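does this look right to u?? beta-D-glucopyranose version
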Amino acid sequence: MSIEKRVFGTTKDNRDVYSYCITNKNSVSACIITYGGTLQSLKIKDKHGTLRDILVGFDTVEGFEDRCDYQGVLVGRYANRISGGSFEINGTKYNVTKNEKDITCLHGGGEMSSALWDVRVISENSVEVSYTSPDGAEGFPGTLKTSVVYTLTDDNELSISYSAVCDKDSFINLTNHAYFNLGGYDSGDILNTLLTINASHYTPTDENSIPTGELRSVEGTAFDFREEKAIGRDINDDDEQLIMCRGYDHNFCLDKTEEANIKAFSPSSGIGMEVYTDLPGVQLYTGNFLNGTQGKKELPMYKHAGFCLETQFYPDTPNRPEFPSCLYKAGEEFRSTTSFKLFVK
Ligand code: BGC
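got this back:
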């Protein structure tokens, strides 16, 4: 095990961005950068012994500053969307940033994802990033102190453990927005990747990607990933939800299971992963809006170049009392862990 610190680059306003790369005994490595507390790369040897970076994203600070669709960044205070950019707590209405079409709040307005996070090496295989979001940032109540620990084990498991405390009652929903391509970031699209999601229901949305409130059964639909299937198998079905979102961009309601909540496998590279989470939902987003933006090694990232598994509370929970609650009292700690267990076969 080793952790290597480097200067990753410099922001436009001249602040240094550092990377911390954790490498295990199998040459698997995870690099975290202080910009956005981002998981910037995740490398593992494929079945042919070639080292592959399985995250689509950027290798320059400029990419993150100018062209980012949340590639690998930490997302808060409220991952995913809040309808109308407003909600109520204890009778007080809060208006948060409407950064999507001036209609909805997406990913908490983006503040945390573009901030420079503090960093601390906490053991030979874990790095903690932390950030304090000031009271009222993007309209959210209270000062929020967040810490996220990335740990890579010799079993090739990368865990991301989140902890956050606010000094006012607040909704908290944190996630990581990595775009995976298990064939390698430079291997084309992810439509042949095999995916399993242990979810019997998902939350269909309106035209602004806000859940309608319905928990719809996946049975007999393109959203049924309970048996392993290629991401692309049904993605072009004549289903209004898929047409509206140009592919999958939906929250799946995870079933209780002892097994992995999600599995993904690339037949071409032989690289796969099991995903475990304690959160009730996951947003499967198949990179539908990527439009050729220049990414790592100046390669363009096209539609479906990667897929995200954003473990989360359901979208718009602040306005949906029937959804599992993510209202945290002042001083009450939000804690959650999602882990990605890589394998090769
Ligand atoms: C959203 C997508 C959005 C993407 C990048 C995902 O979490 O669900 O609609 O395009 O983030 O912003």
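The CA atoms of residues 186 and 299 lie 7 Å apart. idk if thats expected tbh
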